[in-house]
Each structure stands twice: as structure tokens, then as C-alpha cells.
What we know:
The chain is an alpha+beta fold and 258 residues long. The protein has helices at 3-10, 24-34, 54-63, 69-72, 84-92, 95-101, 111-134, 149-156, 175-179, 202-208, 210-217, 229-238, 241-257; strands at residues 46-50, 75-82, 138-142, 162-171.
Amino acid sequence: MNQTIESLLGRKSVREYEDREIPEEIREIIIRSAMRAPTAGNQMLYSIVEVADRQSKEVLAKTCDDQPFIARAPYVLLFLADYQRWYDYFMSSGVPELCKTKGEEMRKPEEGDLFLACCDALIAAHTAVVAAESMGIGTCYIGDIMENYERHKELFDLPRYVFPIALVCFGYPTEQQKKRQQPERYKKEYIVFKDKYKRLSNEEFEDMFKKTNCSLFGDNGSIKGAVNYGQHMYIKKFSSAFSKEMSRSVREILKNWR
Length: 258
């Protein structure tokens, strides 16, 4: 097994970091790696913002579902799905005039373009994560950056066709974090299918979550009224305030994007 595979299989989210900076040359390698990520049509439909300002990190620690460790992370990168740059380039290149000569209305970015830009940005983000992990730097994705769109739009001066899709924290993990066990993943047969998608049966769900149910609930336990992991995750994640805010925020960006 080579070092890359070992790094991928050993990865875990790290939320506690040593009190030391990541050297500039290492940061540059992380950025260079991200910029070599696969991209649709070589368009690089993303932008990356290094969040270095202490006050901005403090704001993110609150707006991203109250996670104080974000403010303590030595290195924070914001990955933006970005069609604004190409739209501006189309305008600069005389595309409106070209469309007029052809008797066509100039097309603006639509939902498909947003999804494509999100893919580009996330691929770049994970390439940065893989590069960092290979150099002993821990990482943690913050999906909550999709919440509070209006506040983040103001904080980072985001134009119409730019959406914050991923925030990633980087730092050298503490000894405790290095020793922390990886969370178990689900069995391959419930995640990976051949040729066609498969919906799982009640029996398969029971087997898939058996260890988790036993660990959380024992024989007769309950958590906030939930008696199994499905109910627990519905309450904790799916129907939570932050999940509802994320949906509201994404609706807002879609409304603006359209």
C-alpha cells in the first residue's frame, strides 16, 4: 500500500489543532494542488478565498452553526462555486454584441451552471484536503457555510453568480486527535451498486445500522424521544434548525442566481 492510499484510508475530520502556523510554502503547495484538480472544460468554475482576518473567522465560527474551532484554525480556505468570472469575461469579450448580430438573447448562468460550478469547487476542495493530509495536516469540512447566505455574501463581497459551497479548516492535529479512532463507515454492499441503483429493505437498514443502534441505544434506551438511529438523525440533523436554515439559504441563492 502506497503513501497516498494510506493517507486516504486513514483520514478523519480534525477539529483541534496544535498552536502553530502552517508554513507559507506548505500553503502554496495546497493551493497549487487544488488548482490542478479536474475541472469541467478546463474552466475552473471556482474561486478560493483564504480567510486570514481574525474577525471574519470569528463571524464564521458563529454563522456556521456555532463551531468555535473555526476561529482557532491556523488556515481556513473558502471554496466558491463561481460563474461570475466567466460571465464577466463573456461581457468583456463582446458576447452581448455577438448575440445581437445573431438575433439571439444572451444566455445567463442557470441552475445547471451552478451545479457544475459546485462540482468544480468541491473537487478542488478535496484535492486541497488530500494534499494537506499527505503532509500531516489535519482538515475539516464545514458544510454549514451554505447557511446564512446573505451574511456571507456581505462578509466576502460575493457577486450574483458566486456561491460559498465549502469551507475547509486546516491545521496540525493535536496528539489526542492523532490517536482518536476513525468513525466506522457503512458496509460496501449498502453504498456501492453495480449498473443500477438499489433501494434498501427494512432488513438491510437494520443490518446497516445495527452497530450504531446498539452503541447509542443499548436494549431499551432513547434519546430525546428517539428509539433508533433513523429517528435520532431525523431530529439531530434532517429536521434541525441549521438544516432548515441551510435550505432557506440555498433557496435564496437559487432565487438570486435565476
